[in-house]
Amino acid sequence: MGLLDGKVALIFGVANKNSIGWGIARALHREGATVVLSYAMDRLEKRVRPLGESIGCELMIQADVGNAAEMDAVFAAVAERYGKLDVLVHSVAFAERDALGGRFIDLRREALLSAIDISAVSLIELARRAERLMPAGGSIMSLTYNASRTVVPNYNAMAVAKAALEAITMYLAADLGSSKIRVNAISAGAIKTLSAGGIAGFRDLLKYAEVTAPMKELVSQDDVGDLALFLASDLSRRITGEVIYVDAGHNIMGYTDVEALMKEAE
Ligand code: NAD
What we know:
Number of domains: 1
Structural class: alpha/beta
Low-confidence stretches: none
CATH superfamily: NAD(P)-binding Rossmann-like Domain
Mean pLDDT: 96
Number of strands: 7
Helix content: 40-55%
Largest sheet: 7 strands, parallel
CATH topology: Rossmann fold
Bound molecules: nicotinamide-adenine-dinucleotide
């Protein structure tokens, strides 16, 4: 018997096999969930479809989370096929390249606003649609990064978007708690993915994360998938409004002697 037998999970933000959303899809499927995938644009279909088919997905639907009609169509398809939704995963982020590098003070207003809209406000849009399909309760989760609470060079627009996403998580949790819908955010350590590649200096950040984390390890898509599985399941039944870290402990560190650690790691 699986932890998620009989549950339907809808995941936004799978672009390819390296996506964190795909790590989550695999973990939820492993424990018995019926998984529905949504991807941003048509040209991703050739990558997403074979992934979905490998875990028996019946529904894989294109939707831009900036487009109300396309989001409506995804939830309508889930309602028609399954009549309900138990788990919603928001694993979506977007910022223009120039908003992910350089001096923060020079950030273009339009670039910042679009990053916040697609990466954070979209969670409200998806949660509102999910609520109608969760009369018996459910679990909503999103993916954040600790650049929301500490300064990480070059994250710029995405750092502000993640701070917004974490606040949105709390406010949604407060609204939806009485309907037994939990809302949490997973704060993942740095992982090499398509989106992460857009951040200036990301390779150095990976090295830094590995040597300074208490566990001296990087985090994988599977590590995040297992935390998502916990949040999707009844094991997390009284947890809501939280930001939960899966980062080998990286976020707890204040000062570290980076030079010594780098030498040790060589
Ligand atoms: P990814 O590129 O695989 O996933 C990001 C997804 O967002 C892609 O599928 C992309 O198509 C989708 N997306 C972008 N704009 C969209 C739009 N308008 N409509 C619908 N979908 C859209 O990269 P990832 O690293 O797996 O990112 C997933 C989530 O994890 C993001 O929220 C990211 O910020 C977060 N995260 C990533 C890391 C990391 O180091 N990779 C660390 C912490 C948190």
